[in-house]
Amino acid sequence: MDQPISHPNSLGIWLLAQQSRERVTVLLSGEGADEVFAGYSRFRSATLKAPEAFIHTSQFQPSSKVSRLRPGANLDRAFARRTAIFNEGRGDYLSNCLKYEMQTFLVDLLVRQDKMTMAHGVENRVPFLDRRVVDFARSLSAQHLVGDGVTKIVLKELARRTFDDAFVDRTKCAFNLPLSQYFRSKAFTELMEDGLLPGMRRRGLVSEPAVRELWRRSLSAPALTEPFWIPVALELWAQQFVDGRRV
Questions:
Q1: For FRET with 78, which of 87, 163, 215, 246 sits at 20 to 30 Å CA-CA?
Q2: Domain of residue 188, residue span
């Protein structure tokens, strides 16, 4: 990635591409469908939120945790840039949300996916981002995209021509790694105590006491593992590519 891997799911894609390369050189991905056809839960209530609130829904690290991990961090300029992108929209509110999503959140997903698959010489194609498909989706009114607690309405109706309702309406699930188990392991505990926490303390980029507390809490609250990943990945990256150490 040429930079710290901020999202742990990138490693899942890397491993998937590694295994796929033994059989194929081209993959098809559903990436983009949620951004183009309003598939995320945040779109269900998009019209009820101010632009700033909608922007916050796709923030990977809550501002409260950022300020604890890195005291003095100021996200105002970043949010101002994101708000300006949102306000460039000239459609209805949901249309502006979708346009914003494609210009921000989707860009990071595609870069991550491309780098993780091409690391193994695998080409990943995204048919939902075909220009004609995107043009069609952008022509749809809100009633064909979200409503009554349902997202991706038109796409799901098309899917029902081939699949049963149980498959089409199944709960959306993430592509997560077993981080909570790893963070509890003896190997990680030794790495954290002997290498990462001392490194964070010396480097001063993040608050070592805040990271230690977040790590302790993550052992009993798996939902905290992804935010905790960020300072760990940053320190590992810095030790390898700034300090020149083998980790």
A1: 215
A2: 179-241
* Residue 62 to residue 75: CA distance in whole angstroms: 11
Residue that finishes a domain, picked among 110, 140, 170: 140
Pairing type for strands 26-28 and 123-125 reads: parallel
Q: 154 and 140 in contact (C-beta within 8 Å)?
A: yes
Q: Is the pTM of this model over 0.85?
A: yes
| pLDDT tens digits, one per residue of 97-154 | 999 999 999 999 999 999 999 999 999 999 999 999 999 999 999 999 998 888 999 9
DSSP 64-114: HHHHHHSTT---HHHHHHHHHHHHT--S-HHHHHHHHHHHTHHHHHHHHHH
> Considering the domain boundaries, does residue 155 fall inside one?
no
